Amino acid sequence: MGARRRRLATTAATVALVLGGWYLLALLMDASGDALASSKLPYPHSVLRPVLDNPDTLLDAAWATLSTALLGFVVGGAIGIALSVVMAQARWIEAATLPYLLLAQMMPLIALVPLIRSIVKSDSLTRLLMAAFVTFFIVTLSALRGLKDCAPAADELFRAYDIGPVKRLRHLRFPSAMPYIFSGLKLAAPLSLVGAIVVELMNARSGLGFLMLSALTFGPAQAPMLWAAMLVTLAMGLALSRAVGIAERLLTPWQMRFREEAR
Amino acid sequence: MASASRTPAGPAPAPAPAAAVRRRRRPRLDRERALAVIAPLVLLALLLGTWQAGVWNDLLGVKPFTLPAPSAIWEAFGESGDELRDNTLVTLLPAMLGYAIGNGLGVLAGMALTSLPRPTAARLSAALIAVQATPLVALAPLVSLYIGAGTAFKATIVAIMCFPSMVVWSQAGFTSVETSALEYMDSMEATRRQVFRKLRFPAAVPYMFTALQYTTVLALIGAIVCETLKGRNGLGYLMIEQLAGFDAPLAWAALVTLSAIGIAWYAAIGVLEALVAPWKTARRPSR
C-alpha cells in the first residue's frame, strides 16, 4: 500500500511540476510581447477551453483518426502474422520476400501517402491503407524472427513424439513468437498513427491532423484548438502503445519479465 | 539460420567422415544461395512485368496517368533529372542536419542520464520511452509557428523525432556494462572519466549504431512531412505538386529517389559501424 501511495505522490508531483513549468513559460511568453504569444504557448486553461466548449469537434476528429488507424493497425498486423507463418513454412516464399521486407524498413513509407491517395481518392481509405502498410512490414519481420526462435530442444521433443506441423505451430512456435510479435506491434502502433496523421496533414477533410491544419490557418483565435488537437494526438499514441502492452500482459502472462515483476 | 531449422532433427546421425560431409553439404548450400538470389529477382520481375503490362491498372481501376508504368517512371528520371537532383539536396541536407543534431544531443542526454542516480534515471528513461511511442510529427504545425519554414524548420522536426530514440538506446548501452567489470575498474581506482572512456562508451557504441540506423527513416519522414506542410521545394513538395499537376511519373520518380536515399543512408551507417566499431557486444540489441 505504501509503495502505491508513493507512486501516486510522484505522479501528482510530476503533473504539478509540468503544469507549473508550463504556466511559468506561458507567463514569460505573454510578457515578451510577441504578437503570436497566445498561439506559440497558450496558458493550460485556455487550451482546455475548446475541449470544454465544443468537445464534439475534437471527439469527432479524434475518432476519425483513431478508428481508421486502429483498423489499419489490426488488419496490417493480422496480414503480417499470417504472412510470417507462410514464410516460416515455405523456404522459397521467404527467400523471395525477405529482402524486400528488410528494404522496406529503410524506406520512408510515409512518402507513399500522396500516391496512395491519388489512387484510392478517399481520405479514410488512405489512412487505413497507410496504417496497415506500415504495421504489416514491421510485424511480418518480427513475427518471422519469433517463429524461427523456438527452443531447439523443445522442437526436437515435439518431433520425437511425432507431433504434426500444425500442432507444433500452435503449441510451440506461436507461443515462442508472441513476445516478438508484441515488440513489433509496439513499434508499429505509433507509426500507424503517424501514417494517419500525415494523410490528414496533406489536405484531408477530417481528423486531428485536419483540425490542427485548419486551426493553424485561422490564426491565434484558434490556437488553443491546435494545442488541444496536438496533445490529444500525442496522448493517443501513448494510449495505443499502452493498450498493446496491456494486451501482451493479458495474452502472454507467462513471460519471464512479467513473472519477475509480480514476485 | 533457415537451413538449420529445416534439417531434420531427432537422433543425430553417426558422424560421417569429413570429406563425405563436405561433399553432401556443398550442393545444398549452393542451392540455398541460388534460391536467395533468384527468388527475389523472380518476384521483382513478376511485379514489374505485371505493372508494366497494365495488370495493376486494370485491377485497381486506375488510369495510367495516376499509376504510371515503370517505363514512364524511368523516363521521368531522364527528363527531369536536374529537378530531382536539386530537390533531393533540399530534402536531404536538412534531414542530415537534424539527424546529426538530434542524435548528438541524444548521446549527450544519454550520458547525463547515466550519471544520474538509478531511480531518477529509470523514471526519466521510462518517460522517454513513452515519448517515443507518440506520433511526434504532430508537433510540426506548432513548430512551424516558431520557425517559419525551410531548412531550420525541417531540421528542428527531424532532431525532435530522432532525439528520444537515441537517448533511450545510448543510455541502455552505457548501462549494459557488466557489474564485475565496473567493480574491477573500481578496484583499480579508475576515475569516472576513465570508466566512461574505457568501459561504458565502447559498450554503448553498438547500441548507438542501432539508434543511428533506426532514426535514418525517421529523419526522412520528418523532412518529407515538413515539406508537404510548408514548403516550396524538396522531394515531398515535388510529389504533391506533380500529383496535383497530373505529372504522376515524376511524383513516382521522387518516391523511388526517397526510397533509394533511405536504403543508401541505412547501409552507409552499417558500413560506418563496421569501420568504426568492428567489435560487437555479446547482447547485440535488435530493434
List the helices and strands and how they pair.
The complex is a heterodimer of chains A (263) and B (287).
Chain A: H1 2-31, H2 37-40, H3 44-53, H4 55-89, H5 91-106, H6 113-120, H7 123-147, H8 152-160, H9 165-201, H10 208-217, H11 223-251, H12 256-262
Chain B: H1 2-6, H2 18-52, H3 55-60, H4 70-79, H5 81-115, H6 118-132, H7 140-146, H8 151-174, H9 179-187, H10 192-229, H11 235-244, H12 248-276
Question: Any key phrases for this structure?
Answer:
heterodimer; A: 263 residues; B: mainly alpha; 0% strand; disordered N terminus
Could you characterize the architecture of this molecule?
The complex is a heterodimer of chains A (263) and B (287). By secondary structure, chain A is mainly alpha-helical. The two termini of chain A are 15 Å apart. The model of chain A has no long low-confidence stretch (mean pLDDT 85). Chain A is built from 12 helices and no strands. Chain B is globular, with a radius of gyration of 25 Å. Mean pLDDT of chain B is 83; it is low at 1-19. At the A-B interface, α5, α6, α8, α9 and α10 of A face α1, α2, α6, α7 and α10 of B.
Topology of chain B as a string of helices (H) and strands (E) = HHHHHHHHHHHH
Q: What letter string, H or E per element, gives the SSE order of chain A?
A: HHHHHHHHHHHH
pLDDT < 50 runs, ≥5 residues of chain B: 1-19
- The average pLDDT value of chain A, as a whole number, equals 85
Specify the biggest β-sheet of chain A. none
Give the overall form of chain A. flat
Report, as a whole number of angstroms, the end-to-end distance of chain B.
18 Å
Ranges of chain A where pLDDT stays below 50 over 5 or more residues in a row are none
Query: Number of helical runs of chain B?
Result: 12
Oligomer designation:
heterodimer
Helicity level of chain A: over 70%
Q: Quote the beta fraction of chain B.
A: under 5%
Class from secondary-structure proportions of chain A: mainly alpha
**What is the 3D form of chain B?**
globular
